[in-house]
Amino acid sequence: MTLPTELVSQLSVAKSLVVLSGAGLSAESGLATFRDAADAHWAKWRPEDLATPEAFASHPDVVWRWYRERRQAALAAKPNPAHMALAELERRIDKVTIVTQNVDGLLQRAGVNDVVEFHGNLFIDRCSADGADLAPDDVDMTQIVPRCRRCGAAVRPGVVWFGEAIPANCIERAFSESSTADGMLVVGTSALVAPANSLASVARDAGAWVAEINVADTAISGSVEHVLRGRAGDILPQLVALLPQGI
Ligand code: OAD
């Protein structure tokens, strides 16, 4: 696709940029987006029936089966050209803050240094009793529902579930960077889930330009300056290639 020349100019002079990413960023790595049809095996479960504290309290074995599969899928997946382009963007622009709703760790594996993990990380093991993030030696993974070796409580994945609060440090960074950035790229998110979906309006209200990269219309398409329709893995590398080399 032909990229808007105004966006290329804006990005070329940007001193600070926020990227908000969602599940669509990893779609080309073969990981299903949240709102895709679930695979047949999990079709009877909605994410809302698996990714909640209530689900974990009532059927932790099912929740863990789902998360083990998600961990395996994420480990088997490879970063795609969109992840790589964001790592390159981080090298070319003075200040880039990548706020991600993705929990798969692919941005870090692509070489991105600084990721604000808004919805946590699939690979963190957390004690459900005291909320501590656990080292591998502190987790008995032989159980269907892993146990904390320090206290015997069930271990849970370190992701943010529906109804839970986003970590305070992530909220603080995401909102303060969005309110001072020159621009924002919103990549592969349906922009349906709060509070991440309000970052674009925070940036816009503070005078930043906002560009959306998505294969389909979203809740925010009508209110951003640039809409780039297509796959993140096609558009982001093209966009980055047009920027001046970093230092
Ligand atoms: P969704 O599954 O809601 O949206 C994925 C978006 O990616 C859609 O807008 C697709 O059109 C777009 N998309 C798909 N393939 C793409 C591609 N190759 N290039 C660009 N865009 C593509 O996922 P999220 O917006 O991330 O939260 O969902 C947000 C949150 O909803 C998730 O983090 C999760 C869920 O509730 C929690 O678990 C707390």
Strand segment count: 10
Give the SSE order as H and E letters.
Answer: HEHHHHEHEEEEEHEHEEH
Rounded to an integer in angstroms, the radius of gyration calculated over CA atoms is 19 Å
Q: What is the strand content?
A: 15-25%
pLDDT averaged over residues: 94
Judging from the principal axes of the Cα atoms, what is the shape?
Answer: elongated
- The percent range for helix content is 25-40%
Helical run tally: 9
Through-space gap between termini: 28 Å
Low-confidence stretches: none
Strand order of the largest sheet: 3-2-1-8-9-10
- Tell me the major beta sheet: 6 strands, parallel
Backbone structural class = alpha/beta
Structure write-up:
33% of the residues lie in helices and 19% in strands. With 247 residues, it is α/β, with parallel strands linked by helices. The strands form three sheets. A six-stranded parallel beta sheet has the order 3-2-1-8-9-10, with helices on both faces. Strands 4-7 form a two-stranded antiparallel sheet. Strands 5-6 form a two-stranded antiparallel sheet. Helix 6 links the parallel strand 2 and strand 3 (115-117). The radius of gyration is 19 Å and the shape is elongated. 38% of the residues are buried. 2'-O-acetyl adenosine-5-diphosphoribose (OAD) binds next to strand 9. 2'-O-acetyl adenosine-5-diphosphoribose is lined by residues 22-24, 27-28, 33-35, 51, 101, 119, 160, 162, 188-190, 192-193, 213-216, 218, 231-232.
In short:
The chain is built from 9 helices and 10 strands. By secondary structure, the protein is an alpha/beta fold. The strands form 3 sheets. It has a 6-stranded parallel sheet, with helices on both faces. A two-stranded antiparallel sheet has the order 4-7.
